Write a sequence for this structure.
């Protein structure tokens, strides 16, 4: 269990903002942490992407369950798939967007969880790029999100979905209940009611790194109730930037974009499905699990995700979660 001193260090780091990932810090947060620790013994600092499309009702539900709003997080300008103002601390490349600051603040330990929005991979891809867990579902605040309509940089209409980023699966499992407004563990799907489809580039499967339209069609036709698609993807934005503004020029830039390692994660939301990314071995690599946006299917997907967990890098944790290096005299 973390101490009040540890939370204070997180807040001091957020105020110091050494990586320019924080827009603002919630006033009086340390006093609120102290009160919550006395009442329930556990608190999770939570960052919120700097967008007005995340409803106040969701924030209220999170706070009641101990996911205290700590920071407002920087997002990529214009919702772009790369953030030209933030850097991936492992690769030194431009950070994957658009929930870039939200993912980075979880990575740096400023927050335990982050809430962002995903149109074409804007939560799942930043999480994968930093070997974090990412989850999205259009079921979260569905009635309120329906008012937002966007056009992607490659001309596809969509409505953003709300999603989350964490460093571990256990925190994500605790987080999804207040995100939905009900306890997901109440749903008990039966194993024999489900089939698993692994993306192996068979003849009847599209190129996951190709254009979005056939991928959207594939997921809409394939992912029905009782089906989970599993896709090994990445390394995200390690070899090249996964950005359609860059990739749209010609065949050369399109091939470069395809090397970004972003596959089905780019089209989950556009297909109306839910997904969970689980970090895999190797920088920026992940297992993407995709299911129908239905309570039982999401509960089954989370159960299945436990099979794909890997040990996080001890070096990354030792270096980037070492708060003392930020406050040396």
């Amino acid at each position: 269990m973390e101490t009040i001193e540890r939370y204070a260090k997180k807040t001091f780091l957020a105020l110091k903002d050494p990586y320019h990932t924080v827009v603002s810090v919630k006033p009086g947060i340390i006093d609120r942490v102290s009160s919550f620790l006395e009442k329930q013994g556990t608190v999770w600092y939570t960052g919120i992407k700097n967008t007005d499309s995340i409803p106040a009702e969701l924030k209220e539900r999170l706070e009641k369950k101990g996911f205290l709003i700590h920071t407002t997080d920087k997002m990529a300008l214009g919702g772009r798939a790369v953030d030209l103002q933030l850097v991936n601390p492992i690769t030194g490349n431009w950070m994957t967007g658009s929930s870039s600051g939200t993912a980075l603040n979880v990575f740096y330990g400023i927050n335990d969880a982050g809430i962002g929005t995903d149109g074409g991979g804007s939560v799942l891809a930043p999480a994968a790029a930093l070997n974090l867990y990412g989850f999205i579902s259009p079921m979260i605040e569905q009635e309120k999100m329906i008012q937002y309509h966007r056009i992607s940089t490659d001309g596809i209409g969509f409505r953003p979905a709300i999603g989350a980023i964490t460093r571990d699966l256990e925190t994500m499992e605790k987080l999804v209940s207040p995100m939905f407004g009900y306890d997901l563990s109440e749903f008990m799907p039966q194993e024999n009611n489900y089939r698993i489809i692994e993306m192996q580039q068979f003849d009847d499967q599209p190129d996951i790194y190709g254009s979005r339209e056939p991928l959207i069609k594939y997921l809409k036709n394939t992912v029905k109730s009782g089906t989970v698609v599993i896709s090994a993807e990445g390394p995200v934005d390690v070899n090249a930037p996964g950005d359609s503004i860059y990739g749209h020029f010609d065949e050369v830039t399109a091939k470069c974009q395809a090397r970004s390692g972003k596959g089905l994660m780019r089209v989950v939301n556009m297909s109306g499905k839910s997904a969970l990314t689980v970090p895999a071995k190797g920088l920026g690599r992940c297992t993407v699990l995709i299911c129908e946006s239905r309570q039982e299917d999401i509960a089954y997907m989370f159960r299945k995700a436990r099979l794909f967990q890997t040990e996080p890098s001890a070096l990354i944790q030792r270096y980037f979660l070492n708060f003392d290096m930020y406050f040396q005299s």
